[in-house]
Amino acid sequence: MAQDASLALLAAAAGTLDVLGFLRLGPALMSAMTGNGALLGLAIGEQHFAAALHSLAAFGGFVLGVAGGALLLDDAGDGWSPRVTAVVSIEAVLLAAFAQLWLTTGNPRSEVVVYALILLASGGMGLQSVAVRQLRIPGVTTTFFTGTLTSVVTSAMRAAEPPATQRKLPTSIIPQVVALTAYVGAAAVAGLAAAHGAHVVALLPVGVVVVVLAGRATAGFKAISNGKNGSC
């Protein structure tokens, strides 16, 4: 699977979980920790301490995910290595548990279930964030997009300068735009599904992550096969 497609699918998982978290779990955001900080401050300011605890739980889950991923990727080389695959595989397990719990519990959910859903989703997003960071693609993330948007606009403005000072668009702008578009598109789909009570949308995050893993496995098998054929 092409790297841009993998990034788009991972960004779609993040967009879906952020919308589900905002609408049904707090509100709290599962991947966008800057926005989550704003929600936390708002909840504290309005003295909605239950909502504040939901945001704190999302922070905690995300931090645990990043910490776990960082430990697994310690000393790993840049790019999509077997260790990155392992990290994303653990993410898939967490998101599968999230989907199963989401689909088997109705509304209103108990606080225990809400916290479990928040920790599973935000933990998965923390793992995803550190895995994509290991790819070392300038300005590309799948869980927070303020920096991505800044990079895209800056590059576009530089490319629009007069010919004497004009710079070419960097190759990284394509995966940046693709990831941002996928995040927004998936958020729109999740919002529409939630508005119509389509709980099956909770399967989307784990589904796209599994597709990414399958694509990486297929690419690995092809590389091994080509290597064997080349040595014959």
Describe the structure in your own words.
This protein has 232 residues and is an all-alpha fold. It has a single domain, classed as Growth Hormone, Chain: A (Up-down Bundle). It has eight helices and no strands. Helix 1 packs antiparallel against helix 8 and helix 4 runs antiparallel to helix 5.
Our count of domains comes out at: 1
CATH class: Mainly Alpha
The average pLDDT value, as a whole number, equals 87
Tell me the helix content. Answer: over 70%
Order of helices and strands: HHHHHHHH
- If you compute it from the alpha carbons, what radius of gyration comes out, rounded to the nearest whole angstrom? 19 Å
Q: Supply the number of helical segments.
A: 8
Largest sheet: none
CATH 2nd-level architecture: Up-down Bundle
Specify the oligomeric state.
single chain
Distance from first to last alpha carbon: 26 Å
Query: What name does the CATH topology carry?
Result: Growth Hormone, Chain: A
User: Structural class, judged by helices and strands?
Assistant: mainly alpha
**Poorly predicted segments:** none
Shape: globular
- β-sheet strand percentage: under 5%
Got a strand count? Answer: 0
